[in-house]
C-alpha cells in the first residue's frame, strides 16, 4: 500500500514512491525478496558484461554507441539500487528520511545530482575509449601516457561534478573551497616528498626521456626499464636485480638512454706489437669483426690508432649494433674479442702483454748466492758459538799426543 503523502511532497516524489510501492507488492516473503534481489543483481552484472564485451570486441564501435552503452550501464545501476530498496521495504524509511531532512522540496536537485554522477561515469568511460583508440592508431601516445591521461581526466571530471552537486545544495561553496585549500596545504607540507615524486612522474610521462623496454643508465644504476609509474621507475639490471628509483631522483640525475636511436656503438681496445704493420693489423681486425653475428654492416666496423702504450700500440675497434640491449652488447663483445685474437694469431701479429724477467749478477765461478739470505741472524750467531763436538775433542787429543 502506498504510504500517505503530505501535501508538501511534490509530484516528482509521489511518482517515485508509487513506483517503489508497486515493486514492494511483488515481494511477499523473504524468499521472494532474496530471489528478486538476486535477479536485479544478475541484470546489472549482465548489462555490464555485455557492455564490456561490445566495447572490447567491436573496435569500430561509433562514439555515439559507446556513449549510449556507458549511459545504459550507469542508469541500470541507479535503477537497481532503487529496486533493491523497494524489494526490502525500505521505501517508507527512505521517504521519511527525505521528509525529516526537508529534502522533499529539493527532489529535483537530488535527481539532477544522480544524473550528473551517471553522466560523469558515462563521459569518462566514453573518453577513455577515445583515448585508447588514439593510442592504438598513433605511436605518439604510449601506454603509460594513455593511463595517466585517463586518470587525470577522471579526476578532473568527477571533481567538477562534485563541485556542481555541492553548489546545488548549498550557497556557501566559497568557504568549502577555502577549507579544502588549507587542507591541501597541510597535506602538501606533510607529504612533500611523495608529491614531488608524483609531479616528477607526470613530467616523465609527458616528456618521455625513455620508454618501457629501453636500456638506460640513471646515475649509478643501469638496466632495462620495466615500469614507469606515477611515483617511481623500475629497472631490471643485467644480474636480474630489480632497482626501484623515485621519480624525483630520476629527474635530478643524468639519464643515458642507449636504446633511443635504436643503435649503439661499441669500442674495444687491443694492443699490437711495435714491430707489427698497423695497417695490416687494422685490416685483419676489421675483417674479423665484420663477420660476427649481430654487428651492423652500416656503418662498417672501424679501427683507429689511439695511443702508444709501454709495450704496445693501442688500437680502438669500433662497431655498431642495432636494437641494442645489455645481452646483445656482451654477446657481440665476447665474440669480437675472440675473433680479433684468432685473426691476429693467424697473421702472426703478436698481442704484447707485461712480462717480468729475474736475473742475477755473474761472478768468476758462476752465480754466487748469499746463503745467509732469509736466515735468522741470532740463530746464525748461536750456531757459531756452539763447540763442534767430537771433531773438537779429536783435535785436542791429537795435540796432547804430539806434546808427549
UniProtKB/TrEMBL annotation:
Record's signal peptide: none
Show the Gene3D superfamilies listed in the entry: 1.10.287.1260, 2.30.30.60, 3.30.70.100
Q: Where is the composition biased (Basic and acidic residues)?
A: 376-393
Does the UniProt entry include the keyword RNA-binding?
Answer: no
Note the Pfam families from the entry.
MS_channel_2nd (PF00924), MS_channel_3rd (PF21082)
> What are the TM regions of this chain, as residue ranges?
34-51, 67-90, 110-128, 148-170, 176-206
- For this UniProt record, give its keywords in alphabetical order, as a comma-separated list: Cell membrane, Membrane, Transmembrane, Transmembrane helix
Polar residues bias: start-end ranges: 394-404
Q: How does the record say this protein sits in the membrane? A: Multi-pass membrane protein
Q: Which domain of life is it from?
A: Archaea
Specify the Mechanosensitive ion channel MscS C-terminal domain's residue ranges.
266-351
Q: Where is this region: Disordered?
A: 366-404
**Subcellular localization, per the record?**
Cell membrane
Annotated family:
Belongs to the MscS (TC 1.A.23) family.
Matching entries from PANTHER family are given as: SMALL-CONDUCTANCE MECHANOSENSITIVE CHANNEL
Protein name as catalogued: Small-conductance mechanosensitive channel
- Organism equals Halorubrum vacuolatum (Natronobacterium vacuolatum)
Amino acid at each position: 500500500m502506498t504510504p500517505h503523502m503530505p501535501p508538501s511532497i511534490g509530484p516528482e516524489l509521489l511518482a517515485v514512491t508509487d513506483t517503489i510501492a508497486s515493486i514492494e507488492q511483488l515481494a511477499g516473503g523473504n524468499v521472494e525478496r532474496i530471489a528478486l534481489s538476486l535477479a536485479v543483481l544478475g541484470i546489472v552484472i549482465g548489462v555490464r558484461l555485455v557492455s564490456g564485451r561490445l566495447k572490447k570486441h567491436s573496435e569500430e564501435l561509433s562514439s555515439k554507441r559507446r556513449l549510449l552503452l556507458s549511459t545504459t550501464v550507469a542508469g541500470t545501476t541507479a535503477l537497481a539500487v532503487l529496486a533493491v530498496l523497494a524489494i526490502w521495504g525500505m521505501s517508507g524509511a527512505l521517504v521519511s528520511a527525505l521528509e525529516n531532512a526537508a529534502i522533499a522540496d529539493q527532489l529535483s536537485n537530488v535527481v539532477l545530482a544522480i544524473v550528473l554522477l551517471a553522466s560523469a561515469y558515462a563521459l569518462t568511460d566514453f573518453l577513455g575509449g577515445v583515448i585508447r583508440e588514439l593510442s592504438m592508431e598513433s605511436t605518439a601516445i604510449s601506454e603509460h601516457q594513455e593511463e595517466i591521461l585517463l586518470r587525470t581526466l577522471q579526476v578532473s571530471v568527477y571533481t567538477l561534478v562534485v563541485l556542481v552537486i555541492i553548489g546545488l545544495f548549498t550557497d556557501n561553496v566559497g568557504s568549502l573551497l577555502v577549507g579544502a585549500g588549507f587542507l591541501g596545504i597541510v597535506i602538501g607540507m606533510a607529504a612533500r616528498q611523495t608529491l614531488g615524486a608524483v609531479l616528477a612522474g607526470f613530467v616523465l610521462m609527458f616528456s618521455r626521456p625513455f620508454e618501457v623496454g629501453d636500456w638506460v643508465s640513471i646515475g649509478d644504476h643501469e638496466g632495462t626499464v620495466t615500469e614507469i609509474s606515477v611515483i617511481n621507475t623500475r629497472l631490471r639490471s643485467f644480474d636480474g636485480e630489480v632497482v626501484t628509483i623515485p621519480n624525483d631522483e630520476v629527474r635530478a640525475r643524468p639519464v643515458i638512454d642507449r636504446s633511443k636511436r635504436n643503435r649503439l656503438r661499441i669500442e674495444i681496445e687491443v694492443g699490437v706489437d711495435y714491430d707489427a704493420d698497423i695497417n695490416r693489423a687494422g685490416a685483419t681486425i676489421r675483417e674479423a669483426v665484420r663477420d660476427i653475428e649481430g654487428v651492423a654492416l652500416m656503418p662498417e666496423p672501424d679501427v683507429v690508432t689511439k695511443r702508444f702504450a709501454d709495450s704496445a700500440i693501442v688500437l680502438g675497434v669500433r662497431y655498431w649494433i642495432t636494437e641494442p640491449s645489455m645481452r646483445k652488447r656482451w654477446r657481440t663483445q665476447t665474440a669480437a674479442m675472440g675473433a680479433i685474437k684468432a685473426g691476429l694469431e693467424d697473421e702472426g701479429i703478436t698481442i704484447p702483454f707485461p712480462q717480468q724477467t729475474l736475473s742475477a749478477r755473474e761472478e768468476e765461478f758462476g752465480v754466487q748466492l748469499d746463503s745467509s739470505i732469509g736466515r735468522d741472524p741470532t740463530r746464525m750467531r748461536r750456531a757459531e758459538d756452539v763447540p763442534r763436538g767430537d771433531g773438537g775433542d779429536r783435535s785436542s787429543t791429537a795435540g796432547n799426543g804430539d806434546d808427549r
